[in-house]
Write a structure and sequence with these properties.
Elements: H1 2-22, H2 39-49, H3 51-54, H4 69-84, H5 90-108, H6 113-121
Helix pairs in contact: 1-2
Pfam families: DDE_Tnp_IS66 (PF03050)
Domain Transposase IS66 central: 6-94
Protein name: Transposase IS66 family protein
Length: 127
């Protein structure tokens, strides 16, 4: 299955090659340096160059498919504002963000949230 997905990935890039070559920017006479490819060409080159990193989730279950951790971290703020309408003060919003950041970091480090927060409140910052 992994080989099939990688083969399909390569086929898509080969089919797209004709498309991104249309966005090819002609080189001006006398200019030096690398040749400009256009936005599509640059994107395609990155897809080819970083193929193993892009498809790494196929081989390692620890790597998330979408890499949207930032969206997941922000989601709690959005849910809170939907429920309560908004934060009452800027200070409250900053405190909420700080606490969410700490909790998110603890979860990413596979540490117990309750135990770690209890230690922090007691002034023992040894996790």
């Amino acid at each position: 299955l992994i080989r099939e997905v990688e083969q399909h990935y390569d086929e898509i890039l080969m089919c797209g090659e004709t498309e991104w070559k249309q966005g090819f920017i002609p080189k001006e006479k006398g200019t030096r340096g690398r040749h400009a490819k256009g936005k599509a060409g640059n994107l395609a080159q990155r897809f080819q160059q970083y193929k193993t990193a892009i498809l790494a989730f196929l081989r390692d279950a620890q790597i998330p498919f979408d890499n949207n951790q930032a969206e997941r971290d922000i989601r709690m703020v959005k849910v809170k504002t939907k429920i309560s309408g908004a934060f009452r003060t800027t200070t409250g919003a900053e405190q909420f963000a700080r606490i969410r950041s700490i909790v998110s970091t603890l979860l990413k480090q596979n540490l117990s949230v309750l135990k770690s927060l209890t230690f922090a409140i007691q002034g023992r910052l040894q996790f």
